[in-house]
Amino acid sequence: MDVIQFYDDQAECSLQGIFRQANLKDKHIPKINLIPNPANESVEIYFKGYQIGLCRLLVSNTMKKKILTIDFDCSNEFYKLNTSKLSPGIYSIEFIINNIHIGTEKLVIVR
Known about the structure:
The chain is mostly beta strands.
């Protein structure tokens, strides 16, 4: 007769050599929020997660033309982007941390 045991305790499972597979895609990837979006004169960019090193923001228009490149220290977990000189429209903001592309967010500028 086969005996099947179920453990719901992480410590007990570890002792028995039973491990859950980690979802590594979500670990250490920053959560990025643009507030407000749509923006007028400025947008606050918040990073939640693991950030050590250099952050780079690449701001592009809808024609994929690079408008701005901004470098700053990731440990701040915050950057206030002055959008007053940007024309109203839709922009892409690429997030690069330590030369690794993290993601792209859309930013809408309204006046």
